C-alpha cells in the first residue's frame, strides 16, 4: 500500500501528469471520481527558476486537489534544486515528482526527461540535488530504460537517493508508445527495492488494475491516457476493488454532463477565450464513440466562440 507521510492511499489510484491535459480543472474532475493523488503537468525547472509566467501557472492548484504532486524536469542539478525550493516555499505541494521518463524530443534534446536514463551518474546527481534541498517528499517517474531494460539498476540508484516512491512506465524510452507496456517487469523491480512501486502504462480498464495489484503486487497505479475523456475510470476501479462489481461506462448524456462541468470550471477561472483553446485538447476523448462525433468535433475545433461550442456539446444530450 502506498503511504506518503501520514497519508495512506487506500486504493492506490493516481492521475498521471499529462502535458496540456492535467490542469487544475481536469484534476478536480478526476478527484471528484476518486483519484487519490493527482499530478500537475510537468514544468521546466529552468522556467520555475526564472519565474516565467507560463511555468508558474502550471504550479497553481486549490486545496480540493490535495494530495497533489508537482512534476518538474530538467538536466541541471542546480536548476532542479532551485526550482524545488521555489515550489516548496511558494506552493507547498504534497509531493515533488522528478520526470525521468519523458521521451519527447524537445525535452530529450535538453538532456532532461528520459535522456537522464542514459547517464546514471548525472541522473543520481539531479535526484540527490532535489531530495537534499527540500523537506517535501520527492518521487521519481521513469521508463524501464533508454534502449534496453536497466530498470533494476535505475531503481536501486533512485531508492538510494531517498525518494518516497517510484513510478515505472513499462516501456523503454525508444519505444515511445509504439509497443505495448511490459508489465512483467514489475515483479523483478518489486524484489529489488523496498520503497513503494507505482505501475504506469496501458492501464485503461479496472481489470488491469486488479491484475497489477493482485498478480504483480504493485503498491499503486498511475493512469494517464486511460483517464482522457474518462475521469470516471477512478470510480469504476474503486467499485471493482470494494464491491467486486464491474460497472459499465457512463451513458453518453452522463459523459457530456461531466465535460460541461469541466468547461464551466475553466470559464469561471480563465475566461471564455482561453477556455476555448484548452477544451479542444479534451473534446476528441470525451466525444469518442458518439455516432456523429466526427462532424461535431470538426465544428467545435474550428469554432472560436465558447457559447457556440457549449451549444454544440449540449445538443448532443438533446439528440440522444
Architecture overview:
The protein has two domains: 242 residues, TIM Barrel (Alpha-Beta Barrel); 68 residues, Non-ribosomal Peptide Synthetase Peptidyl Carrier Protein, Chain A (Orthogonal Bundle). The longest helix is centred in the C-terminal third of the chain and has 28 residues. The strands form two sheets. Strands 3, 4, 5, 6, 7, 8, 9, 10 and 11 form a nine-stranded parallel beta sheet that branches. Strands 1-2 form a two-stranded antiparallel sheet. Helix 4 runs parallel beside helix 6, helix 9 crosses helix 10 and helix 11 packs antiparallel against helix 14. The relative contact order is 0.11. The chain is an alpha/beta fold. The model has no long low-confidence stretch (mean pLDDT 94). It is globular and about 55 Å long.
Summarize the structure.
By secondary structure, the chain is α/β, with parallel strands linked by helices. The protein is built from 14 helices and 11 strands.
How are the elements arranged and paired?
Elements: E1 2-4, E2 7-9, E3 13-15, H1 24-32, E4 38-39, E5 43-44, H2 45-49, H3 53-58, E6 68-73, H4 77-91, E7 95-100, H5 105-108, H6 120-131, E8 138-143, H7 151-161, E9 166-169, H8 185-190, E10 197-200, H9 206-216, E11 220-223, H10 233-243, H11 252-279, H12 283-286, H13 293-302, H14 306-319
Parallel strand pairs: 3-11, 4-6, 5-6, 6-7, 7-8, 8-9, 9-10, 10-11
Antiparallel strand pairs: 1-2
Structural key phrases:
46% helix; 2 domains; 320 residues; TIM Barrel; two-stranded antiparallel sheet
Q: Could you list the spans in which at least 5 consecutive residues all have pLDDT below 50?
A: none
- What is the CATH domain class of the largest domain? Alpha Beta
State the fourth-level CATH superfamily of the largest domain. Answer: Aldolase class I
Radius of gyration of CA atoms, rounded to a whole number: 20 Å
Distance between the termini: 42 Å
Architecture per CATH nomenclature, i.e. the level-2 architecture of the largest domain: Alpha-Beta Barrel
Count of runs of 4 or more consecutive helical residues? 14
Provide the residue-averaged pLDDT: 94
Question: What structural category do the secondary elements indicate?
Answer: alpha/beta
Main sheet: strands, sense, barrel: 9 strands, parallel
CATH topology of the largest domain: TIM Barrel
The helicity comes to 40-55%
Shape: globular
User: What are the secondary-structure elements, in order, as H or E?
Assistant: EEEHEEHHEHEHHEHEHEHEHHHHH
Strand residue percentage: 5-15%
Count of spatially separate domains? 2
Compute the number of strand runs.
Answer: 11
